Amino acid sequence: MMETQTTPKIRKAKWGLRLMLFALITFAILLSVLTAAVYLYAKILGPPPLSVPQSTLYYAQNGKQIGESNSGQQRYWVPLDGISENAIDATISIEDRNFYHHHGFDYRRMAGAVAADMKAMGKVQGASTITQQYARNLFLTLDKTWERKLKEAFYTIRLESSYSKDRILEGYLNTINYGHGKYGIEAASRYYFGKSAKQLTLAEAAMLAGIPNGPGVYSPVISPEKAKKRQLAVLQSMVKNGYITKKQATAAANETIKIVQKADPDTNRIAPYFQDLVKKQLKTKLGFDDRTIALGGLKVYTTLDVKQQEIAEETVKEIIPASSHIQIGFAAINPKNGFVTALTGGRDYAESSFNRATQATRQPGSTMKPLLYYAALNHGFTPATMLKSEPTVFRPGGSSYRPHNFNSQYANRDITMMQALAVSDNIYAVKTHLLLGQDVLVQTAKQFGLTTPMEKVPSLALGTSGVHLLDMVNAYSLLANGGTQNGPVFITKVEDYKGRVLYAYDKHEKERVLDKAAAFVTSQMMTGMFDKRLNGYARVTGASIVKNLTRPYAGKSGSTNTDSWMIGFSPQLVSGVWVGYDNGQEITLAADKMYAKKIWARFMEKALDGRPVTEFKPPKGVTGVEIDPATGKIATANCPVARLTYFISGTEPAEPCSKHPAAGENELYPKKHRNWLEKLFPFF
Prior knowledge:
Distance between the termini: 150 Å
Subcellular location: Cell membrane
Main location: membrane
Transmembrane segments: 21-42
Strand content: 5-15%
CATH class of the domain at 75-254: Mainly Alpha
Domain Penicillin-binding protein transpeptidase: 330-604
Protein name: Penicillin-binding protein 2D
Structural class: alpha+beta
Strand order of the largest sheet: 2-1-3-9-10
Number of strands: 17
């Protein structure tokens, strides 16, 4: 028997096979170890952050979107159940049909893509899964380097090992580029079809699903023909993958789709000055940083009343001629809750974003007097307190001060506080201010929420220290609601992109800062500017607009050489208007001096149109008495004029009017006020 001999050539071949097998096993082991290490490292790092820049949206009281902030990428995050099944199925079918069956990579599809590319000698077919594309959208640039591809693979592993398939799909649908600066299916659906992603039909969903493959090619706005061909390809893939029937695909293909190309929200169109203040409060009051405010996907619910805002802006345009260079500040507040319902800081935001309602510091003139008389009521004065209106030189601290009434009109006799306020008598105001002590009005201004410094001078009673319009409107809101500091409020709620509440306004955040009875008595004296029964040596200051008013109002106008004001309220609404020139130019034209009152009156009437006419209801602690305005005493049947006047209980007059025949005894002042009034005269 002969022994089989192995030739060197055969031995060499066997050794080569063993070596190749060893190398393959070693490579497989190393690859397994490396893969396991990568997955372990991914687990150690934990879930990658999924935050992406998203549009912050702003809403009015009624839920209407009034604006948004973004960096040129509109994106509105919606949950997966907020997207139509048609859109979800169409996307999976055309982008990654095995999405729910792989772990981030579709190896069979990758092999097919490599074969197709080799056959065509170029890049003709993609193989990226939805997870890979999501990783690219979240963390990477679009360059085609090997480094980027390795990072993409690693982030894909991290996503798949940390999040559910539904979470990944939701993120992908909310971040993918649909063209025209629209990122995410909600922004795209609103732009192309004017509807939410939840409402998409099969035909619309198929067209949207085809866009991300080439937004600059398959956008129906850019190329309706190519968009249609891509839509048909998506529908065919859905039939092939079992999502729809051929009949459904044919119906969808024949459906006429209306591309609305809805314009982006114009943030400068709906209350831009108001929106600026909301953004400022998000930062200064609620503590959000600039990036979160601009791109954090917040939903900010505000107090804006769109109807009132439109009325305010339209009224300004109707009353002030376009040729005029005069400027305006306007604000309206609901006194019951402190909500700022309308605000404008100028006539044209595009021309000037300077907010004259909150940034301008202007002299309030006689609109300061209600605050002064509120203080006086708490120091013994009453609406019937009488002081003499005549040319007067005041010499507090040795200096001289000579104020003047409008048009140098004086009663040259004693007048009541309620008449002094109604006709805006300056002499009465300065006398009251000096009697109280100049620091009283300074402290009262702070009590009313004025944030600008008040100078302790006699002219402070006439509004010579600058204020902000919004501060003054809020101060009048305190008088309207009985002394409760509850505003101004701009934001009621803030949510993140997931709908989680980050801030909610607490309606209990309020504080009583004024005496309720004194606030009501002050507001009742303020109704006098519209009451012709208080005409005396001068007309009441609201006489020119009384004919345009159909319900009870309280208010006060004010003017300086450079500023014109009107602030007033009903029980339901407070509003204020400032008119003047930015450069401090003197207001000389008679028409310019009337703008503030006219705008205020027209706004209030239109804003309250259709709402019930409500009276000012007296609270406990006040007493109403029919008063003769000329004497400040209880009116008798012989008095030609009688006006129901409210007093803090216990301070109302007890003596009947003696000026007219058959009246009672002649008493100038109630006894309880006589002594301290006599202290006034050393100031003169």
